[in-house]
Design a protein that fits this description.
By secondary structure, the chain is mainly alpha-helical. The protein is 78% helix and 0% strand. It is flat.
């Protein structure tokens, strides 16, 4: 009887393991297929000039996406300056003082915003900022990306701050430190690596967004050093090249897509490494 039950359990275990492996392959194969396809299509268009030159006019060979790469990092810098402090402070508030009705409302709004389509954020910022400024601009694009970053940063910060042991807070309070200093000097440093992971994930999401930038940042074929003027970005540059009828631009779109994928991949791997270092520290 015992042997029969054991064999039955082993059979069920083997079947479930097999299904898990098959499901994993169904999830992993499309991902690596996309990465491999983008790599094959885009690697031929990469060169040093492609990283540093401006786009060429129609009919001229060569050119690059240097302005789009710089523009993407400018937009990301604006979004980080606006979104990271607000998101981290919001997460700290929800973790330490968010047990009231206001905290529950903010938490609910953050969860809802995480599922809002990015194009709606673009329309919102277009109505609020672009129309008042008169034209798309780097500032409007950065604000749109910062709004997209907020839900991830707020919720990640809140959950990571909650994981900080209560004994650390009590030790700081027992030493006579006020609560705000305990949060600043004890709680935040203890959860900093986890907060940095959430920030990296939010940045990775914002870096690849296209829809809100079409409404807010616009498109610019030249270098842009002014925050109140149009600015190019990698996602919008890919959109412009891919929707054109020119084969040369299609090749450059694939190369730019490869650059975008590699940057997003680096950001996600960095977030994973931060998580791993935090786990080893424990």
């Amino acid at each position: 009887m015992g042997t029969r039950v054991y064999r039955k359990r082993k059979c069920v275990d083997w079947v479930m393991r097999s299904w898990c492996i098959v499901a994993t392959l169904f999830a992993v194969v499309p991902l690596f297929s996309v990465l491999a396809y983008v790599f094959v299509k885009g690697i031929g268009g990469l060169s040093w000039n492609f990283f540093v030159e401006l786009p060429k006019p129609v009919g001229e060979l060569g050119g690059g996406v240097g302005n789009a790469i710089v523009g993407s990092f400018v937009l990301l810098g604006i979004a980080s300056v606006v979104g990271i402090p607000v998101g981290v402070l919001g997460g700290v508030y929800l973790s330490e003082f968010g047990s009231n009705r206001f905290g529950k409302a903010v938490r609910f709004c953050a969860d809802v915003m995480a599922g809002v389509p990015s194009i709606l954020i673009g329309i919102f910022v277009y109505t609020l900022v672009v129309l008042s400024m008169g034209s798309p601009s780097a500032l409007a694009g950065g604000i749109a990306l910062s709004i997209l970053m907020l839900p991830t940063i707020i919720r990640t910060t809140e959950e990571l701050i909650k994981l900080v042991p209560t004994s650390l807070r009590e030790a700081g309070l027992a030493l006579g430190m006020p609560k705000w200093r305990v949060i600043l000097r004890v709680v935040l440093p203890a959860g900093m690596s986890g907060i940095a992971t959430g920030v990296m994930l939010a940045i990775a999401r914002a870096f690849g967004e296209t829809a809100p930038l079409l409404f807010t940042a616009g498109y610019n074929r030249f270098w842009s050093a002014s925050l109140d003027k149009r600015i190019s970005s990698l996602p919008v540059q890919i959109y412009e090249y891919a929707s054109s009828p020119y084969e040369e631009w299609h090749q450059q779109a694939w190369a730019a897509a490869l650059i975008l994928v590699l940057i997003v991949l680096i950001l996600n791997v960095s977030a994973k490494l931060l998580t791993s270092s935090r786990s080893h520290a424990r």
